[in-house]
TrEMBL record:
This is VOC domain-containing protein. Residues 4-133 form the VOC domain. It comes from Fodinibius roseus. InterPro entries: Glyas_Bleomycin-R_OHBP_Dase, Glyas_Fos-R_dOase_dom, VOC_core. It comes from the Bacteria.
Length: 135
């Protein structure tokens, strides 16, 4: 079988808050934002990976079970590549200003002096990692 495209579907409690958060971080909207369709969507990175954020009550029936409680666990962590340590530091500052939470401050990672990154969660608890590999 050949896969043409992959995208993510995540649940949120407030579409406007989600739209505002990711817009402030510079994510590229995937279409016009409208609460009526029950989702907000963004294109991420050079390959324009699609991330859909659905209202929780709209996504839950399609999941065939409960939505993860992100206050008590994790679902997945997306990684964004950075071109420098300064870019990682910039992400950390912008995330805080946009209303996100840093769960891992900018730092050298796993004892490798060339790896530098930070981790953050959006207002619904979806986790992201910003990573720089200085080789």
């Amino acid at each position: 079988m050949k896969t043409k495209k992959i995208w993510a579907n995540l649940s949120v409690k407030d579409l406007e808050r989600t739209h505002g958060f990711y817009t402030k971080l510079g994510f590229k909207p995937n279409g016009k934002f409208s609460k009526e369709n029950g989702l907000v969507s963004f294109l991420v990175g050079q390959d324009e990976f699609v991330v859909h954020f659905f209202l929780e009550e709209n996504l839950k029936p399609a999941m065939g079970g409960e939505i993860a409680d992100l206050e008590n666990g994790n679902e997945v962590m997306f990684t964004l590549s950075a071109d420098s340590r300064e870019e990682v530091d910039g992400w950390a500052k912008e995330v805080k200003k946009a209303g996100g939470t840093l769960f891992s401050k900018p730092q050298t990672m796993q004892g490798n002096k060339n790896w530098y990154g930070c981790g953050f969660a959006d207002p619904d608890g979806h986790k992201w990692n910003v990573f720089y590999n200085g080789k």
